[in-house]
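Budget justification aside, the reviewers requested a transparent look at the raw inputs and outputs of the sequence design task funded under Objective 1. We therefore reproduce one unedited record. The lines immediately below are the structure tokens for a 413-residue chain.
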């Protein structure tokens, strides 16, 4: 049995109320720094204040609500996620973790329970990274991972980050003051929807996150020869798009059949001149591999280079492979995983270990503190879509386990 029960109804009502801010027939639009994002942030601040949290906005625009613990000398235990969304997104991605963190604080207050550690609810700003094409901006600022490139980023209209940050209470010229040091946080606990199909399929209400996936992104340029589509015999062609197409299928097989890495995706393709009566002289594809095992990502890159070398010989095309991004996976410690599993069991819920295929604020915070993540089912595994849905029971289960996890962490850390 859990020690205290969260108020399911009150909690789900806050999720629904937040879900009306920025809602439209095509989905949720609380893109970071937009007026709708600010409505969502103000709603979170209002709830935090009602829960008795002392709230502030750091220079990166993160909303931080603090509740003093018995021993103010101990490092803080933080709970949180984000309330920004992708365009045409869903009601649960990020929102669940913030609303649940606030419900946990309200329940503790109702019960008159003061934790040993001081607590913080953090609503990280701009997790999704839509407008400036830079993600985890709030959490990376807090953890010293922001780069000059992030600060210089402009949106599609050439508009910079500074005024946007000012609109939400941040300050780009002193953004480094948002940084926290290692040891300031005893732990960071994040509840999130799975955004994938595994829990929905297995029927387990809780996922114990084992790690957050690493990601390697590549651009492959193929150079063949453009020529007349009517007069060039088939056997003499050097068609860059045909070579690209063969690569697309080979890359799909790398995960689907050869199981070299967990997932492999070619998400973009371009042909030049892209005219129906011209044999494509050049083509490019954009692709990515994801796995929590960095050795698997290295093996995938090696295989990519092997198949492109083969294509150069067999198809008489020139190929250039550029690695654009390589994000390391973030493992979650066995100790923190065991605590999440124990919290689920204390609440009478079955669980399964799961790797996160998506990125989260927790992966940035892991640079300065131990982190734990709890997943709850996403119906049909749908996310970043208006169809994104987790049942009120799934959401309440997650909040309940988050509370129990916090109490365990407060005793043990
Ligand atoms: Zn999220």
């Amino acid at each position: 049995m859990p020690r205290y029960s969260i108020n399911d109804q009150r909690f789900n009502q806050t999720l629904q109320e937040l879900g009306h801010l920025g809602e439209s027939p095509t989905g949720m639009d609380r893109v970071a720094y937009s007026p709708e994002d600010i409505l969502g942030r103000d709603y979170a601040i209002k709830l935090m204040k009602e829960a008795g949290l002392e709230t502030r906005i750091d220079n990166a625009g993160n909303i931080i609500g603090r509740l003093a613990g018995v021993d103010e000398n101990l490092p803080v235990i933080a709970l949180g996620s984000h309330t920004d969304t992708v365009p045409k997104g869903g009601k649960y991605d990020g929102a669940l973790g913030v609303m649940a963190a606030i419900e946990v604080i309200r329940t503790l207050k109702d019960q008159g329970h003061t934790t040993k550690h001081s607590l913080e609810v953090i609503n990280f700003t701009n997790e999704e990274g839509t407008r400036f094409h830079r993600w985890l901006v709030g959490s990376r600022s807090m953890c010293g991972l922001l780069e000059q490139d992030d600060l210089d980023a402009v949106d599609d209209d050439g508009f910079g980050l500074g005024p946007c940050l000012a609109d939400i209470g941040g300050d780009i010229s002193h953004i480094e003051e948002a940084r926290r040091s290692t040891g300031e946080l005893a732990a960071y606990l994040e509840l999130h929807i799975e955004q994938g199909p595994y829990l929905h399929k297995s029927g387990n209400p809780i996922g114990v996150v084992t790690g957050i996936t690493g990601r390697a992104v590549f651009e492959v340029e193929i150079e063949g020869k453009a020529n007349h589509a009517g007069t060039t015999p088939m056997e003499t062609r050097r068609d860059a798009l045909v070579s690209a197409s063969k690569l697309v299928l080979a890359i799909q097989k790398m995960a689907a059949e050869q199981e070299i890495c967990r997932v492999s995706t070619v998400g973009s393709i371009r042909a030049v001149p892209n005219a129906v009566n011209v044999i494509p002289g050049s083509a490019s594809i954009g692709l990515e591999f994801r796995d929590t095992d960095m050795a698997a990502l290295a093996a995938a890159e090696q295989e990519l280079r092997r198949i492109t070398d083969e294509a150069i010989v067999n198809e008489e095309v020139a190929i250039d492979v550029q690695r654009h991004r390589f994000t390391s996976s973030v493992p979650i410690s066995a100790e923190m995983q065991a605590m999440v599993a124990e919290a689920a069991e204390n609440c009478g819920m079955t669980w399964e270990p799961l790797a996160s295929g998506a990125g989260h604020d927790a992966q940035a915070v892991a640079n300065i503190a131990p982190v734990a993540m709890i997943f709850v089912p996403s119906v049909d595994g749908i996310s970043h879509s208006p169809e994104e849905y987790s049942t009120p029971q799934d959401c309440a289960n997650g909040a309940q386990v988050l509370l129990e996890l916090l109490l365990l962490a407060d005793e043990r850390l």
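The chain has a mean pLDDT of 96. The longest strand covers residues 214-223. Computational costs for records of this kind are itemized in the attached budget.
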